[in-house]
Design brief:
118 residues, alpha+beta, Helicase, Ruva Protein, domain 3, two-stranded antiparallel sheet, globular, binds zinc ion
Length: 118
């Protein structure tokens, strides 16, 4: 995950969009295919547009909202429903596995090692 490649996107969206595309955060940016970049970019634009509209960051798909899953809403300063950002040690909404965190280039990474296997 080369910081220069995804500069300006923000920690939340970066972590979340990698999760949504099942991409391991340790994969090098140069190994991301053009088709993957296209999909990531399209997704990111849609997520950020929605974020501006609602004034909060929601990155979970409809089937993973608190209502759909029957789980309590997230409690965090940032608000919004996310898959991995600041959810270290909590269960993944998709597979139930533990979300991990680590430091990479002075940034906090959050990811699910089970779901992000590509
Ligand atoms: Zn998972």
């Amino acid at each position: 995950m080369d910081q220069k490649v995804i500069a300006g996107v923000g920690n939340v969206y970066r972590a979340e969009v990698l999760f949504r595309h099942r991409i391991d955060p340790y994969r090098a940016g140069r190994d991301i295919t053009p088709a993957e970049w296209d999909a990531i970019w399209t997704d990111l634009v849609a997520l950020m547009r929605e974020g501006v509209r609602t004034n909060r960051i929601d990155t979970v798909r409809p089937e993973h909202t608190p209502e759909a899953m029957g789980r309590p809403p997230r409690v965090d300063d940032h608000g919004g429903e996310v898959y991995v950002y600041r959810r270290a040690l909590l269960p993944c909404h998709v597979c139930g596995g533990e979300i991990r965190t680590a430091d990479l280039a002075a940034r906090n990474l959050f990811w699910c090692p089970t779901c992000q296997d590509t």
